[in-house]
Design brief:
By secondary structure, the protein is an all-alpha fold. It has 2 domains: about 1-55, no CATH class; about 55-124. About 70% of the residues lie in helices and about 0% in strands. The chain contains 8 helices and no strands. The protein has helices at about 1-25, 35-45, 45-50, 55-65, 70-80, 85-95, 100-105, 110-120. The radius of gyration is 16 Å and the shape is flat.
Amino acid sequence: MTKCCRSVFGRLTQTASWGLAALQSLTIGDSIDSLPEDEQRTLRNLPARVYYGVNSDEAVALRLLGVPRTAAVPLAQQLGVGAAEPLNEVRAKVRSAGADTWKAALGDRGASYHYVWSIIEGEV
């Protein structure tokens, strides 16, 4: 089971995200420029969404900052992270969010998520 999961979540996600990015570069070209800016961002971030296992651009930013996949989407919503928000501002929001904010986003397990994230980030 462990070997299967490593294969699926290791190789498949990397291969799928790389493949999507390659297909985008071959097929999209200049046609993307005619789309509204938010749709362009969504399309361009599709490989990152696959790689990080989340379904929003806001959650991708949190994943880049080390927030666990299962916490990224609800925490992004709780913090009011915007898709076009600079990463340093998102980082400041996440760092200033206490266990109560994580708990509001994730329920009782939010405090544990916050504590582990704080340890990994060297905050504790």
